[in-house]
Amino acid sequence: VKDMLDKGLSSGEKKLRTFAKSVGVLGANLFAGAAAGAVPLGFLLNDYARFRNKIAELKVVSGATAAELANLTAQANSLGTNLGIAPIEVADTQIELAKGGIKPGQIAKMTKEVLAFKTAAGAEVPTSLATQIGLDTLAQFKLPTDQFSRVSDAYVAAANAAAPSVVELSEGMKYAAPAAAIAGESIERPA
After folding, report:
1. 104, 160, 173, 188: least surrounded by Cβ within 10 Å?
2. What is the pLDDT of residues 47-60, one digit of tens each?
3. 126: Cβ–Cβ under 8 A, 6 or more apart, which residues?
4. For residues 152 and 134, what is the distance between their CA atoms, to the nearest angstrom?
5. What is the pTM of this model?
């Protein structure tokens, strides 16, 4: 019985190592956490399953090709690791951008900008709201998507220079932006 148990455990460990290698950074972290006993394996597998579901949602929402999806998945893992946030939060940001009509090729660049905006705006601004504020303002001023960082900089500068928060500024911008855009004003002036 002991030999069968050892053989089964050895086989399971081998399968887990193979699985960890196949999922890249997230898989390596999964195996390391489980091997160290720091986090229960079930919890890590649940996080991995939720992440894979988000990536599947991203594929559907964005229409990304296999290569584009692989790049976005790698970005979610990389940014998650480098910024100290969960890769699933990065994937959520990518999904929000796709829902906003951003094409897969632009999502990678804009994801970094949205996360920077969210960080600068503070804890009161969830990632989905930071994405929506930026995309709405781009549309209101008829700005191309490569101007996202300009929009986020204007909001953060205005919030730091005055009492209103980024959220309060975005509410006011809903009313001021259309008139400002018609008058030819830049995003920096009404913010």
Report:
1. 160
2. 778 999 999 999 99
3. 118
4. 7
5. 0.67
